[in-house]
Every structure is written in structure tokens, then in C-alpha cells.
What does this fold into?
Amino acid sequence: MVGVNLTGRSVVAELQGYYQSQTNQRWLEVLVDCPGTQEIYTYKLPAQLTVQPGDILSVPFGANQVGAIALRFVEQPPVDLSPDKIRAVEDVVSRGFFPPAYWELLNRVAAYYYTPLIAAIRVALPPGLLGRSQRRIKLIGEIKPGVDAFCTPAAKEILALLQAQPNKDYSFVYLQRQVRNAYRGVRELLRLSLVESYLEPPRLTRPKLQKAVTLVSTGLERDLTSRQQEILDVLRRQGGDIWLSELLRLCNASPSTLKTLEQKGYVVIEEREMLRQEQGVLQAADAPKTLTAAQLQAVEAITQLEGCDRVLLHGVTGSGKTEVYLQAIAPILSQGKSALVLVPEIGLTPQLTDRFRARFGSKVCVYHSALSDGERYDTWRQMLLGEPQVVIGTRSAIFAPLPRLGLIILDEEHDSSFKQDSPIPTYHARTVAQWRAELENCPLVLGSATPSLESWISVRKRESGVGSRESEELPTTVNHQPSTINRQPSTINHQPTHYLSLPERIQSRPLPPVEVVDMRQEIQEGNRSIFSRSLSEALQQLQARGQQGILFIHRRGHSTFVSCRSCGYVLECPACDVSLSYHHVEEGAPQLLRCHYCNYSQSHPRNCPECGSPYLKFFGSGTQRVAQEITRLFPQLRFIRFDSDTTRTKGAHRTLLTQFANREADLLIGTQMLTKGLDLPQVTLIGVVAADGLLHLPDYRAAERAFQTLTQVAGRAGRGDDPGRVILQTYTPDHPVIQAVQQHEYERFVEAELQQRVALNYPPHGRLILLRLSSVEASAVENTAQAIASYFNNYITPGWEILGPAPANILRVANRYRWQILLKIAPDLQPVLPDWQQVRSLCPHNVSLTIDVDPLNLM
Ligand SMILES: Nc1ncnc2c1ncn2[C@@H]1O[C@H](COP(=O)(O)OP(=O)(O)OP(=O)(O)O)[C@@H](O)[C@H]1O
Ligand SMILES: [Zn+2]
Ligand SMILES: [Zn+2]
It folds into this structure.
């Protein structure tokens, strides 16, 4: 490995450990890649091998040879293991697989989120990368007859098998299956130097190979038919290099014609690796736009950032943040570096990736978990090549292994989809991005129209001069998990953030006026429809004016619950403590009730299961119900439903949005998913059917989230030449969130919200750790929760507070009972946290525990 980056502190410590131990017996802790094992094992290091943490090894494990990752050197073998029982590392399969800074990043994630390192590695690596390496046995030279005269039957058998095989080569596993006592037989043959044993590097997901044709002729083409000449001309016009299938298609030729050309020496046909990257739609090239004064200032400021400076780009909806990103990235690429752009959801990625592709062409690649394993694997390898490129991806792309990273951008940084709730590690991409920026020494840009309170407060710190400390230490744990090699307490960087603002929309277009409609008033005045008179009128005019609208509904499905008018019985999921939602399938098809938590479904009963009454009624409106009402009330309006039910298939987001952009519909009816980043100039009307569903959630972040969502939804209107208009229906028009959205008052809202957080010690003032426990046995989970809580109570030190144990808001989901304990840590204190290993040991095997650090979702 060259150019070891010495900023990776723990790695440096490890390297020192390595050199010191040269003279001593060398013990190595490794992570074994074997399904079901998460433990760390100690191995001996043979004198002839040099290993560094992060190398991929092959080690004996049980009767197998498996892949493993070197973690760290230790002075002593575990006390409960006698040194001669410890097995030796077999070989190094791949060196320097993880560059030091990347390795350090994974360690920080594991330490901060209290997860085993292997969990952090799994979230970062594409599936199948740590494939097992394979031990193979091969004959050496010619075997003279009779050399095996004194061999055991097993050795003779193996020899015979190998001789019969054309390559004289078999995998050890195969020999074991064919021959009894193969292990001994192979040892014997090795001793006699009749065979060699070698390691085949991990068989990774195979790259896809395809035949390519390359033109090699120099122009002296005499012996050609006109047909052959024609094919060569096509090939030349295509740049002299093209996939075989493509050329055959273009010339309508047969493979044999090309074979002839190859034999005559005019072309070379060879298998070449084809990268299975997600193929974007071809984009017309796009030139940089002339920046507005505010955009120019932002681009200049970002270009001048140094080291791992962090900046918050606070630009109102439609202020042209994307153009700022594009122009900030261009110089990075020309310096030969790469940029990483994180976006919240796949739903909004097509439009954004299209813009990037139009600007940077094939330098753009997309990386997210919805890619197939093959696509993910290829994109990953493409990144490792180190060519300057732009990677756009969701949360997990923060682990994209881009060498020479020059800039990280988080678009819509406030979005909660950057946080992973499960499985572990429960990381937040913004937090990981800060470490990544620090370790790679590159700037980080956080962009949003509605910045998170976390980012806002870090800007304020800068302005008030607080936070000049470089980084602030987190509470240390009593005992380190054995799986974290980072001996230092994890730190989170509280370095203050620069502030850049784009206060106006492009071309000084106004933000759309927000009309708040009091739905109580509507009912009083005799309107029982889900649409207010104002929204009805606006919908009515939409088509006549040739404009488009968006209806935002908080939920998918048809209705939130179904209940009996006679006895009040509510239909519930048998596996979860939630009501079933009604889903309308199609006219005439059986009506379906579905659970939004576990996806259980059943057909809608004719009669109440409790009292037999036929009067079952739907309550609450989801996207389907609204769509039905639109059909009934405005039959002429063409609409597209855009929610997780209609966008399940690959490419559906793009298809639906393209249809809408092509004006194949007047109205887009959808959930949260359409609130973000959508830039459609012809949309003038936004209707929020009922804001209340967002406001009254039992979560301390409900107000912040509601404000962000509603502001983002409203921001989709009036982005083109025609002015926009937002109609917001609610039963609580005086709610501070509604008021703030109406006035477009971000700052006043967050300042008031921050005061409340301070009063209650909630983040970003102070920190939270949520323990989620679940089990199919109600009493087991409850007892465990109690036991952990009392363990905590013995630990209580000033600065942290235990809330619970308490049953989760929805006690049972998919037949698992859920309890939780919330730890609240006061700001500016560094209390001693519990020993997580101890906490885990309090969980019996039938209770699972997830430690959610900085949880966003408390329900
Ligand atoms: N300098 C410019 N001149 C002309 N048009 C511009 C300029 N910058 C951006 N635009 C256009 O303005 C529109 C809005 O820009 P963009 O989508 O980047 O806004 P945004 O700030 O990301 O908004 P949101 O937060 O709502 O997603 C886009 O159609 C974009 O092409
Ligand atoms: Zn009933
Ligand atoms: Zn369910």
C-alpha cells in the first residue's frame, strides 16, 4: 500500500502495534466472513506473512477455508485460549482493500453507533464482495509412475483424480466430497511435493463479459467484398470500437461475416467486461447557466472552501441550488477529483440524475440500494478505478469508495430518509458525511430550503462565536466493545458551519401565496366534501387554463380504517396493533384490506365480524380515496397517482413523472414522495388535502417535520412563468406550523422550536439513544425491558436520564411485541454511559435489541 494516509488515527496506532510485535509472537484479531458469525476470532500470524488491518485474508475456520478481514494486532491471546490451540492465518488474499481513511470511517461508524464492525462493513460493501476465497490443489509437474507406492489410499485416490483432470487442478472442497480422509491425503501429497495448494481470490460476483469488435486495419483493404467494406466503414464511423451485438444490429450482418473479417485480420473480436451500471436515459448536453448574483456568491464561496469546511446552503424552494451544485462540482472534476452527491429518495433521483448527466455525461453514476447486486458491484468497481466522477446516491452511497474525493453534497439535508432505523448500524448519512469529509479532508455542502435544526444550530454557533472547539468528545463507554478497534472515544465534529443563502427564487419569481382553508368552517357551511370550495374551484379551472396541479395526501391507500357504524368495531390486523387500511383494487375486483406495517391483507368483509351489521364505513382519506373523489367530481380531469403502491416496479418513478411532465395528465396525486426536489415549471396549483395528519403525531419532531414537508410541497408551485398558488386545508388553522408555512417564515419557526427543545433537553440540544426491544413473547420483552432499565438505574450519573421502559406506540407489529427505553443525555455533559456488552447480555435469545443512536423516529 503506498501513501498511507496518516490522518487515520487508529490505523496509525495499529501500524505501530504491528511493528512492535515483529519480534514477539504475533496475534491477530480477524472478522470471519461466515453467515451467522459476528464474533472476532484470534489467529496466529506466520512469520513470513505481513498483514495490515483491513487486508482480506484466508483463514481456516472449522473444516473450511474462509475469507476474513484483518482487524488489529493484540499483545496477548485471549486468556481462555491456550496459544497452541490458535490456528494460523493462511494467506493474504487482497491487500490494501480498504484505504486507511475508509477503514477509519467504518470504525467510527461502528464505535459511534455501538454496532459490531462487521455490521458497518456490511452496510458499506456491496453484497457478495466478501465472497469466500477458495483453496485449490494442483499437481506439480509430471507424476512418475509408482511415486505413490507408499501413499495412503486417500492420497492415491486424490492423485488419480487430479491426473484425470485436464487442468490437473481441483478445489479442496471438491476433493473432500469425493475422497474420504481427503484432508490427510492432501497433507501427505504436499509433504511429498507432488501437489501444491494455492488460494484463489474470493470469487466475486462475476463481471459481465460481452464480445467487442475493434478495427485494426490500416486502410489497405483490397480483398474485401463490398459488404465487408461496408461493415468496416460503419465500424470506423462508430469510432472503431463497438459491442459485437451492436455492430451486427447496425449492419444487419451475421456473426460469420465478422468472423471472416477477423480471419482476414481487419478486426479483433474479444470478450470485454461490460459494466452493469444503471443506464440513464440519454441526455441532450446542457451548458452551465448564467448564475444569479446569489448563486454566483455561493459557487465562489464553495470553491474557496478549505480542508473539511462545512457549509449550509439555505436556498428557498426554486432558488436554483442544483445549478450551484453543478457549477461547484465542475472544477472538482477538472482537478481530477470526484464528487459525491446524496439525495433522500429514489423517487426524486431520476430528475436530478438527468440534470447531472446532461452536464457531466458518462462521468455520472448512480448508486443506491435499489440497484441489482450486479449493478451495485460494477458501480463499486468503477468507483475504485479512481477516474474523476460524480456519484449520486441515497443514504448508503455515503460509503461509496471514491478515491480522491473532492466534495460531498447532501441535497435536502433535513430529510429523515438519510437516517437508517434498521438494520444496524442506525447511522445518519449526514453524521457519517461529516466524518468522511474530515477523513478525506474535503468540504461538505448541506443544502436545503428548510434546514434541519441540527444544521441551523451549528451555523448559529459560528455566528455567536461558540463552538470554536475543534471537536467535542462524546460520552465514553465504560468498556469498549471488543469489536471496535478504535480505542479513542468516538467524536462528533462540532465545528461550526458556514452559512450561504439563496433568499430568492430564480428570476425573482415570488414564492406562491399559501391560502389556509379552515375545514371546520366548510362543514358549518354545509360542504361535506373532502375538497373545500376554494380547492374545488381551482381544480375546476385547471384544465381550462392548460395548467397542472399536485394534490398532496399524507397517506397512501384508500382509507385509514374501516369501522362498523352499528357497534363501532374497527377492523384490525391480526399480527399488529393497527387498524387495516382499505385498498381499492379495481372496479369489480374483491375489495382489499391491508396492513401498512406488515403488508398482511384480507378481503373486505360484507358484514361486521363483531355484530353482523352490513354498515361498515371508511374513515380517513388516502391517495386512492382522493383519486376516486376526483373521478367522481371532476370526471374530465386526468390524473396520475404517485405513491409507494404505484411506484413499486423499477423505473416506475421515471415513467410516471415523464408522463406528467409530458402533460399526459392534469393532476398528480401523491404522498410525501412527490414533495421533494420536483421541478415542473407548468405546475401552478398545489392542494394539501388535510394538513392535520402531519401535525398531530406523538413525536417531538412532528412540528419540525410537518413544517418541512408542507414548505417543500408548497414549493412545487409556480416554478415557471405562471404564478403558483397553494391551498392548504386544515382543521387547525391557528397551529404555529400552519402559520409559519403560510408566512414562509423559516427562521421564526426554527427559533421558537429550538426554545422548546432546549426547555425539554431534546436534540439538537442534548442527545438521545433509543433502545428498541422486540420479541414474539410479550412477557419476555417486557421483562427484559425492565431488567435493562434497572441495570441503567444503577448506573445513573448526573447528565443522563432514563425514560421508560414503555411499550412502543404500536405495541405489536408483525406479531412481535415492542418495548423501548429512551436515554436522554444532557448537553455539555459527558456522563459515563453503560457497558453495552452488559446490556446485550441481559437480552435472552428470544428478545432482539437495537440500539438507535440519535433516533429520528421515536414511535
Ligand atoms: N441561473 C439560472 N438561470 C436560469 N434558470 C435557472 C438558474 N438556476 C436554476 N435555474 C432553473 O430554476 C429551476 C429551479 O432550480 P432548482 O430545481 O435547482 O431549485 P432548488 O433550489 O433545488 O429548489 P428545491 O429546493 O425546491 O428543489 C430549475 O428549473 C433550474 O433549471
Ligand atoms: Zn358491528
Ligand atoms: Zn400487520
About this structure: Residues 9-97 form one domain. Residues 289-292, 295, 315, 317-323, 449, 506, 677, 679, 715, 719 surround adenosine-5'-triphosphate (ligand 1) (CB under 6 Å). Confidence is low (pLDDT under 50) at residues 1-23, 465-490.
